[in-house]
Here is the input.
Amino acid sequence: MDASFWHQRWDKNETGWHESKANPLLVTYFKELSIAKGRRVFVPLCGKTLDISWLLSHGYRVAGAELSQIAIEQLFMNLGVQPEISEVGEVDLWSAKNIDIFVGDIFALSRKSLGPVDAIYDRAAFVAFPQDMRNRYTAHLIEMTAKAPQLLICYDYDQSLMEGPPFSISHEEVHRHYRANYDVTLIASTDVAGGLKGKCAAKENAFLLRATA
Here is the structure.
């Protein structure tokens, strides 16, 4: 998927992936990361997700990356805070108390610009990339975050029945991308109510990734 695809979706408000409340798997299983309040959580391809509000309300600091400025304008509007905006390398940084969102191409975001993070919450990024981009994404994420522990949420369904995004990610593929750097544990698997986009049966799976020694 190129940048124009996502810009077009936001321009037309075609954001069916946006949930009207914090993701239940986040609410139930974020504690499995065992990070203290005040620690910094990275949310790649965050959009305007209400998961950010949930993390902030539970005492965490949030860093995010998002291609669409429209999404981040709406995010800060929903949070009711006015961001300070600056340039950081090839991306823009929108900041307010306890939140830093980098607006631009995630592959242009460096480890130095991002700064230290204590955990990753990925519900929307891995599943957004087509297969030929996932190797690049996961390698970049691992390097950029210094192998921070991760709560990863993916969909698993018959890809022949529906085009992504979100793309289907099997257990085997999660292991293939991450097992060299993490211990990978499936901690939850739930049926998507009504099917994914109402088109096909799907599982929503939560994985806990902890860095190996």
In short: Residues 3-211 form a domain with the Rossmann fold fold (CATH 3.40.50.150).
